[in-house]
From TrEMBL:
This is DegT/DnrJ/EryC1/StrS family aminotransferase. One of its GO terms (molecular function) is transaminase activity. Keywords: Aminotransferase, Pyridoxal phosphate, Transferase. It comes from Chitinophaga nivalis. Belongs to the DegT/DnrJ/EryC1 family.
C-alpha cells in the first residue's frame, strides 16, 4: 500500500537532529520566547529578505492577528478566495469582518485577479490571497489592484513555503505573509506553529504585543492581546527543518515532475509556467469521475486525499456568513480534485507505481 502521507517516515531523516535540538532546549531551561524562537525568527526573516518574522502559535492565529493589527471597523469587508481551506475565512469572521468570496482561475485554482475588482466596495479594506497547493497567485496583477484601491494585502502562505512568483518568494508581496508550520506543511513542525512575515516596524511591534497579552514589556499591557506564542521547542525543531527545506522542496518537485510527465492527458494536471516556482504542497489531478477514481486507486494499493471535499460556502458553519450565491468554479474544483501521494518520504519508484496504476483507470 502506498500511503498518502506518513509523518513519522517524513521526519525520520531528521530524528537525530531533532533529538539534539530537543535536548539543548530542555537543558536550557528556557521554554517560552527564548533564544530558539529569536533565532528562528531572524533566520526565517532573512531567508525571505524581510525585516521581521514573528513566531505565533499556528497559522490561523497568524491570519487573525494580521487582520487585527489594522483595527478595521466591524462589518468592513475582506476579499478572500472561494477556493481555500476554511481557516482563511475563519480569520476574517473571528475579527468581526465580512468575508467576500472571489472565484478562482480554473487553471491555477488560485484567486482570479480579473474578478477581484468587481468585488471591491467602499467598505473593502483588505485582500487575503492563498497560494494554494504550493503555487503562487498572480502577484503582479494582485499588487497592482491593492495599490490602485489602497487595500491591505495579506498572503496565506500555509501551503507555499519557498514558492516564488517571477523569482520573488511568497509572503513578501503584501503587508503580511501568514505561515503555518502544521506538521503536514512543506516546512512542518512537530506540533502546532505559525507566524507572520512583515517589513514594517510598527506592524511588527503590534504583532509582538498581540501575541503576548498585548505586552512587549513584562506586566505593561499596551493592547488587548492574546496568548499566541510560537513554542520554544517547536522553534528548535523548525530551525532544523528549515536547513532541509530546499531539499524537501526539490524532492517534492521531482516527484511532481514524474506525475506531470507520466500521467495520461485523460486527467487534468496542474499547469506549469516559467513564472511560477511551485512547491507542490499538494499534487492534484482533476477527473469527472473523481470518487470512482479514488476508490479504484485504493483498491489498487494507492491512498489519496481530497483538498477539499466541501467548499467553504457550503459548510454549515458559514451559513448566513458567506453570501448565498453560486460559486461554480470553486464547486467544480471541489467536485473533481484528487490529491496524489507526494510526500518527502515517497520514493520515485512509489510515484512511478502510482502513475502506472492511475493510467490504467
Ligand atoms: C493549514 C492552513 C491554514 C491553517 O494553519 P494552522 O496552523 O493549522 O492553523 C490556513 N490556511 C491554509 C491555506 C492552510 O492550508
Amino acid at each position: 500500500m502506498i500511503e498518502y502521507e506518513n509523518l513519522g517516515l517524513l521526519n525520520k531523516p531528521f530524528f537525530e537532529e531533532f533529538k539534539a535540538a530537543f535536548a539543548a532546549t530542555l537543558e536550557s531551561g528556557w521554554y517560552i520566547l527564548g533564544n530558539k524562537v529569536k533565532e528562528f525568527e531572524t533566520t526565517y526573516a532573512q531567508y525571505h529578505g524581510s525585516k521581521h518574522f514573528l513566531g505565533l502559535a499556528n497559522g490561523l492565529d497568524a491570519l487573525t492577528l494580521s487582520l487585527r493589527a489594522f483595527n478595521f471597523a466591524p462589518g468592513d469587508e475582506v476579499i478572500v478566495p472561494s477556493n481555500t481551506y476554511i481557516a482563511t475565512i475563519l480569520s476574517v469572521v473571528e475579527c468581526g469582518l465580512k468575508p467576500v468570496l472571489v472565484e478562482p482561475d480554473i487553471h491555477t485554482y488560485n484567486i482570479d485577479p480579473a474578478q477581484i475588482e468587481a468585488a471591491i466596495t467602499p467598505r473593502t479594506r483588505a485582500i487575503i490571497v492563498v497560494h494554494l497547493y504550493g503555487k503562487s497567485c498572480e502577484m503582479d496583477k494582485i499588487v497592482a489592484i491593492k495599490e490602485k484601491h489602497n487595500l491591505v494585502l495579506i498572503e496565506d502562505c500555509a501551503q507555499s513555503h519557498a514558492a516564488t512568483f517571477k523569482g520573488q518568494l511568497t509572503g513578501t508581496f503584501g503587508e503580511f505573509g501568514a505561515f503555518s508550520f502544521y506538521p503536514t506543511k512543506n516546512l512542518g513542525a512537530l506540533g502546532d506553529a505559525g507566524g507572520l512575515l512583515c517589513n514594517d516596524d510598527a506592524l511588527a511591534t503590534t504583532i509582538r504585543r498581540l501575541r503576548n497579552y498585548g505586552s512587549d514589556v513584562k506586566y505593561y499591557n499596551e493592547l488587548v492581546g492574546m496568548n499566541s506564542r510560537l513554542d520554544e521547542i517547536q522553534a528548535a525543531f523548525l530551525l532544523v527543518k528549515l536547513q532541509h527545506l530546499a531539499q524537501i522542496t526539490e524532492h517534492k518537485r521531482a516527484l511532481a515532475a514524474i506525475y506531470q510527465e507520466g500521467i495520461k492527458s485523460d486527467f487534468i494536471k496542474p499547469v506549469v509556467h516559467p513564472d511560477y516556482f511551485d512547491v507542490f504542497h499538494i499534487y492534484n489531478v482533476r477527473h469527472e469521475r473523481r470518487d470512482e477514481l479514488k476508490q479504484y486507486l485504493l483498491d489498487n494499493g494507492v491512498k489519496t486525499d481530497i483538498h477539499y471535499p466541501l467548499p467553504p460556502d457550503r459548510q454549515k458553519a458559514m451559513q448566513g456568513i458567506i453570501a448565498a450565491q453560486p460559486y461554480p468554479i470553486s464547486a467544480e474544483i471541489h467536485r473533481t480534485t484528487l490529491s496524489l501521494p507526494c510526500s518527502y518520504y515517497h520514493t520515485k519508484a512509489d510515484i512511478e507505481q502510482v502513475v502506472a496504476v492511475i493510467n490504467k483507470f
